[in-house]
Amino acid sequence: MNDGQISGNGAEQRLEERIKELNCIYGISAITQDESITLNEALQDILQLISQAWQYPNSTYARIIIDDEVHSTPNYKETPWLQSTQIKHGGKIKGIIEVGYLEEMPAMDEGPFLAEERKLLKAISELIGNFIAQRQIRDRLNNNNNNINKAADKDDWEIILGILMKTDPRSSLRITRRMIYHLYRIQNEEIAAIVNSICQLDEADSEWCGINIPNPRKDIVALKKIQAEVFKIAKDALPPEEISNLFNMWLKADKARPLLLASQKQSIPLTEITSELNRFWDMPEDARTLLPEDDISISTALIRRFFTSRLDFINNAKKYIGVGDFVSLLKTVVGPPEGEGKLGGKISGVYLAEKIIEMEKITHEHLRDVKFADSWYITSDTLIDVIHYNDLDDMVHIKYLDPSEIRQEHPFLEQLFKNSIFPPEIEKGLNRILRNIGDNPIIVRSSSLLEDSFGAAFSGKYKSLFLVNKGTLEEKRNALMDAILEVYASTFAPDPIEYRRERGLLDFSEEMGILIQKVVGTKIGPYYIPAFAGVAFSNNEFRWSPRIRREDGIIRMVAGLGTRAVDRVGDDYPVLVSPNKPDIQVNALVDESIQYSQHFMDVINIEKGTFETVSSLDLIREYWDVYPIITKIVSIHRDGILRPVTGVLMDIEDADLVITFSGLIEKTSFIKQIKSVLNILQEKMGTPVDVEFAHDGEKLHILQCRPQSFGKETVRVPIPKNIPNNRKIFSASKYVTNSHIKNIEYMVYVRPSAYDALSERNDMLNVAKAVGGLNKALPKGRFILMGPGRWGSRGDIKLGVPISYSDINNTSLLIEIAIKKGGYLPDLSFGTHFFQDLVEADIHYLPLYPDDPDSIFNENLMNMAPNRLGELLPKYKDMEHVIQVIQIADISDGGTMNVVMDGEANDALAYVMPPDHWTWRMKKVEELGNMLDAELYGVEAFYVFGSTKEATAGPASDIDLLIHFNGNEEQRESLLSWLHERGVKLGKENKERTGGQTDDILDVHIITDEDIKNKSSWAVHINSPHSAAKKIPLRNDN
Amino acid sequence: MADDGYNAFEIEQEQFDRMADSLELDKSVRDLLRSPIREYHFNIPVKMDDGTFRIFKGFRIQHNDARGPCKGGIRFHPQETADSVRALSMWMTWKCSLVNIPLGGGKGGVICDPHNLSQREQENLCRGWVRQVYKNLGPDNDIPAPDVMTNSQHMLWMLDEYEAISGGRYPGAITGKPVGMGGSLGRTEATGYGVVFVLREALKELEMDISKTTASVQGFGNVAQYAIELFIKYGGKVVSVSCWDQNDQTTYAFFKQDGIDLKELRKITNRYGTVEKSRAEELGYKVLPGDDWLKQDVDILIPAALENSIHKDNVKDISNKVKIIAEGANGPTTPEADEHLYSNDVLVIPCFLANAGGVVCSYFEQVQSNTNYFWPKDEVLGKLDDKMTDAYYAVIELKKRRNIPMRDAAYMIAISRVAEACHLRGWA
């Protein structure tokens, strides 16, 4: 930046003045070129321009007297605060020009006037002089068709340049530089020579080459010489109109300079950048221009300022978000005027998506009708502002409290928040938002900075609240503020804090942007709902058929509000569709379609002002005639099939309606629309996306968009590479979806060969019963089920264990094993018998093909393990040859099993984990406590802290112990030697476990009563909010 | 399919052999009836939505058509085997014979999983199936019907293909069609009503006044609801029904001493037959564990839900008051339980007979389709009553005469009628 030394408001003000002056000169030059107006009209316009160019336009008057004819601004009055100059041409005085103020203004360089204004006045007088002379010549040669301009001494641009050189040398230099670039670009040879010579000859002029900091003042003479040469070359090389046009454009482009400077400022306050943007944008369109390079620097800076500093985001966003977008965006942003807050992850995602779709609409037919929900935004620092404004500053420390304390305190804290008030300027902003929204119901969503910065899955951790938005403005505002405060309070709720603690994000200063959206929908009876809504994902993590690929995506949709599709409600089912293969339905059978259909609907009751769940079919029947596109949403069940709703011979009261969306899927372009949205967003954002949508019956509205990996279920965990073969249990490489199941304690394995050999149907039914029994006996979510063929077979139950969903609903993973039979590989079920139950309960499915040469199926290890079936269910002990229950601890020295499923690589691996370093250490510490004779060694209390306590211990970590000691020196010594002995022993044990070298693994710190009193030394760890030590029970304790 | 282990066809053959022994059938008839008379195994090429082709394996197995054209369903199942289709086709022969309708037994199938097929692909598959075997189908040869994972839509596609090839309208070529498209009225009621028609006759036999009897029903689906409807119409009292609760993933029994009110219970029942627990309680029903349905002090038990629901462990819970068990479901009583009930003089009306109303109605649909004249519902149900009643008396007569369980009697009647037809035709 060549004006780098200018900074602060004074500088900007000066810059503003320069721009006004330039506007004036440019304007006058334009007027003087206009052949169509009379001299008098021209002078009148010029006066108008002059009065705007001085420092106090409101009290500026001006007068021009030429040949005794007086022209003046309407407010002309004689005052003592005035400056004037003569208008000359060809050495003769033609008249006089005066500019003055109507009232006294603070003293500046020349009376109340700036030095620049004097220069400007002179330049104007010259322009007018030239102009009058031209007109006189033209008049004289009235009927002669000579070129008037040629008759004059100079071209316009030369006059402008001359003026600039006098009044604003820097601008003139900038124009010079641009001219050099321009000439360079059109490959003018002479200019190349000049540029070379500058670089060689004069280091101080290196500004020309774009290196180093300029120092123009010192060498202004040299520069002027070069300037003159440059324009000489230009004059020879380019026709005058072209130079005029270039000047024109550059001068216009200069108007973006204040904005450019402002945008580059780190954390520029909200009001400042807003007014800068508006000032620029409010200029008439033909008076401003944004060079591509300025546009991109400003928008990039603004993206960083309002969205995120993540480079990948900026890099992408700058292609779609321009300066003009920010002008309209900021009209919808509310925040502390002096604040520097951002808008947060959720808003960034959906805003970028909107801009991408807006641009791609042009070429993608199916995107044309896609809309985005009307939205308003509150900056993230408003949260902090509210905290300060209400003296809630101690809130920010809450995250360091013990989880149980946070949980206990939260309800009170939420109330504290809800009783807070907003700073008046925010309240005003909210009023503005509400006036814009009108009476439409709204949803208040959180948009956290953490979600954005770390890609952490905060979905559903913070609150989103619906508001009916009814009543007087004040009532509406109070409700809105209440909702915002509740969302704020959720920042301090135990679950998100726990989540952050687990991921080491606790120290991040979490702020929360707020997204306020109009709820998309229509009024249906007392309700306000979209016709349907839901969520669509680029990647399908629950495939129901081998014909569906992971990248085919998935849509979950419901009639009414999308909450039931976004969340898993357990007892109700959304319709699942693969956007790329809508014909491969999850529920191929009519009975399944009916069983797994939506029975309830979430609605906003605008009459009662409540959010309700009602029977979907009752609502549909009651409001059949007004429910938008209802015939596309439901089917009629008759004669054992589901039929579309057609014709008039239909009695809705008695019809057996089922929500299937089959009309929507088959007869409308909705699927194509969603598919285009997913494809375009994935392509342009460079990541699979997760899109929430709602449809009002006419148009598809996008409500949210974020990278799919931010969702809680879909974080990709790659297969660990360094697992020794003897710890691997099985692997798979077909139809794998993303999932990571940790800490599995049991594996229930129905041996395919043994099941196949069962000759009695009853025996097979008994296997199912035993599995059902295990499902109740084993810890929920801590076991997996593996069995032959199709779980849940009916009829020919030889094909798979005939369980029902309730027999397996506590498992964490359902595995079907396909074993070749006489050269033929049976199809697996993919869990289709109860597929949607699995989805809603988040139970994953994995097929195994042990006959694949590359797959691992460690039957040896499984066979070695004792069978726990008889122990768990004595009744089924005789079935141990068919069902093996393996306690993972038995095959892993007390460890657990992990199953990592990496859908992207289509690989899955199950392996046993020895007990982790932390658990092992903690166990050893507890054993130590149990062995330590407190009385003998004078030990008051025994603590552990550091990595063992924080559960972050690695293979070589020490165990940090804190011993509150109150014995004598002798006791102290024997205590230390006792601990050393134990430490060495444990070190050896650890070496055997991990191979890592540790001599004495115990790091012992002795503290006394004194230390605790003074909180000195290690004693701070006791009761520290950050890294409190954990007290270990001693043998002598009760 | 591996050779060891459970094989439905072998079990069916063993059962047949046992009955054939009792009937002292000739070897030739045994050989003829022990396995299907004709089998068609064929490939069906289907052009998939993505342009590729897949070849599906199809079957039609005609077990016996001595008494008339074959009749039986078409199953779509990924692990369908020829043996399971054979077993089922044999079963169809006996079923048609038992209710004395002039039809033989058949069954067909395609190895496929409809979950992996689009509607269009399924349509292509249905049409392809017909093209491979249409010469051996038709109202005079073999009449398919819906079965596992197929429905009336599949039947209409098949019929359309059959008619397109044959160049005419032959609604009698397929059954299970929607009303108005060649389907029969009364089909919904047929199975449930059929159960009660035979039950009514059995009560007469035991000299019990149906209007003074009580019953407990397992299940509240289609069969159970219509059985209850007719039973109440006859003046009987149903004190308890049980059903599956999807939310709680368990079964409950709903009990009312004064008898359930079908109408009010239907109102609080969703379409899969789950009664809303809380509202039932409000209406004065006692909600009991599902298994309690068979512990009630009633005269009649109607298991109309799952197979194997009366087994050796719970058969002793059945009250001494119970005189009749009418099997509305398929195979609800295990052989051990069956023996126990027989020795305790409980009359078990075997599923084979009790739930044959559906097959009879299919036959009626065929008859109506062939004549292109469709009867009012009352007429259908009246004719159904006649068929069921006749079938009942044939069975009970043999049972009494030879002092055997009803199940065996039914089996023997069915087999001997087919054997006789073969004999008369000079086949054996």
Rg over CA atoms of chain A:
39 Å
CATH superfamily of the largest domain in chain B: NAD(P)-binding Rossmann-like Domain
Annotated CATH topology of the largest domain in chain B? Rossmann fold
> What's the oligomerization state?
heterodimer
Q: Based on helices, strands and strand pairing, what is the structural class of chain A?
A: alpha+beta
Beta-strand fraction estimate of chain A: 15-25%
Q: So, CATH architecture of the largest domain in chain A?
A: 2-Layer Sandwich
Side-by-side strand order of the widest sheet of chain B: 9-8-7-6-10-11-12
Question: What does this protein look like?
Answer:
The complex is a heterodimer of chains A (1038) and B (428). Chain A has 1038 residues and is an alpha+beta fold. Chain A folds into five domains: 1-148, GAF domain (Beta-Lactamase), CATH 3.30.450; 340-518, ATP-grasp fold, A domain (Dna Ligase, domain 1, 2-Layer Sandwich); 522-710, D-amino Acid Aminotransferase, Chain A, domain 1 (2-Layer Sandwich), CATH 3.30.470; 725-913; 917-1031, Beta Polymerase, domain 2 (2-Layer Sandwich). Helices cover 41% and strands 18% of the residues of chain A. In chain A, a hairpin with a 4-residue loop joins strand 30 (896-902) and strand 31. In chain A, helix 5 (156-167) crosses helix 6 (169-185) and helix 17 packs across helix 21 (494-502). Chain A starts with 7 loop residues before the first helix and ends in a 7-residue tail after the last strand. The model of chain A is unreliable at 1-8, 143-152, 200-209 and 214-218 (pLDDT under 50). Chain B is α/β, with parallel strands linked by helices. Chain B folds into two domains: 37-173, 3-Layer(aba) Sandwich (Rossmann fold); 187-354, 3-Layer(aba) Sandwich (Rossmann fold). Chain B has a seven-stranded mixed sheet with strand order 9-8-7-6-10-11-12, with helices on both faces. Chain B has a five-stranded mixed sheet with strand order 1-2-4-3-5. In chain B, helix 3 links the parallel strand 3 (70-77) and strand 4. The interface between A and B is large, with 50 and 42 residues.
